[in-house]
Amino acid sequence: MSKISKFFKGGGSAASKSRGGPSPQEALARLRETEEMLSKKQEYLETRIERELATARQYGTKNKRAALQALKRKKRYEKQLSQIDGTLSTIEFQREALENSHTNTEVLKNMGYAAQAMKKVHQNMDLNKIDDLMQDITEQQDVAQEISDAISNRARFSDEFDEDELMAELEELEQEELNKGMRDMRLPSVPSTSLPSRPGKLLTCYSTFLRIKAISTRKRAEDEDEMKKLAAWAS
């Protein structure tokens, strides 16, 4: 049995054997160590190849035997270097596959934990109660929407009264105020004495009459404005 077979078949620490095989972390560590060892071997072989080429150039035709021996050694080193390249490719592939397997294992493990947690949470849930709860929530949302619509709509007090009746009542009030104003307006009585001979006194009497008439007209206008405001408020 070769040393490599013994290594993979019986190698490894006692702790790994007691557990029935190495863990993924241990295997990955071993593979990285092997990659590092082979990389160093590659550097050594590349240095030897360059050295043998220099030796062959040095002897050349002067010492063909020594030059040929150097070239033979170079060929052997190149063959070993090629084998190491293939081995490194195989180890790299194996390491990547192991890393992916380890990652998938961890992912599945965590997904299993999450599934168990979800199962535990759902054990305390009743689908019938959830349906009832969602139905209650929907109903309360509808009620809240109806309340919001009712609050946002402007109150319409004018719809309770007949506008034609209100206008007729307003005209009656205006007519009463007009009649009252006419009754309250008193024209100056005709003087019993003879008219003044001078025009100045006559003009003074006429001016007094105009002021009284203007006061009456202004009072009537104010009353009409008050009635219009009242009508506007009622509508």
UniProtKB/TrEMBL annotation:
Residues 1-25 are annotated as: Disordered. Signal peptide: none annotated. Residues 1-24 have a biased composition (Low complexity). GO terms for biological process: late endosome to vacuole transport via multivesicular body sorting pathway; protein transport; vesicle budding from membrane. It comes from the Eukaryota. It is found in: Cytoplasm, Cytosol; Late endosome membrane. It is a peripheral membrane protein. Keywords: Coiled coil, Cytoplasm, Endosome, Membrane, Protein transport, Transport. GO terms for cellular component: cytoplasmic side of plasma membrane; cytosol; ESCRT III complex; late endosome membrane; multivesicular body. InterPro entries: Snf7_fam. The keyword Cytoplasm applies. Belongs to the SNF7 family. This is CHM4C protein.
